Write the structure tokens for this entry.
Amino acid sequence: MESTQQLPATQTAIGYLGYHAFDDGDAYRGAILVTDERSNPLEFRCTAPVRPTPLQRTLYGKSLLPHILTELIAAPLIGSLREKPQMILISDDHFFDLRCKSAFPVIMVSASKAALRAKNSEHSKTLLIQSSSGKFSELEIEAHAKFPADLDSSGDRLRDLFGRWDLTEPFQRLAEGLKYVHDEHVLES
């Protein structure tokens, strides 16, 4: 399923990538919502349900979910985009390995975890960002360990945008969109 709009050349496009498990964990659907710098939707794409077999669950074990999310959901979604984002934001670290296959920075956005950050500060590739408007709680942004420069290239832009709107809110829209397309049986055969 797709929906697209045009973006003026000077604006930042941000891809929000997420997934949801349906049917008691028997099916996974993913989606990407590309927004402009005002958080307006430019493009939305979702996958058909991915239903791993019992044999696949056995053979893949704990690597099944990262495989599904990176290889079967994220890579095809990003490859199908007409509106290429300048960065991709994720809220689940299972998507991090997408960065190894993507030309775009992949940045995880989450609520600040000050205690965890203090405990792991030596190994962390994270930045704490605050909303310059004071409207939103501070966030932590994190880059893939192999691509720490992604924070340098994306951090300032995300700080700027975070002063105007909540960077995590589009994940809620994405989740609601996924629920809608699943309930309506979109892309199911």
User: Anything to note?
Assistant: Confidence is low (pLDDT under 50) at residues 118-124. The helical segments are 54-60, 64-80, 114-119, 149-162, 169-183. Strands lie at 2-4, 14-22, 27-35, 41-46, 87-90, 106-111, 126-129, 139-143.
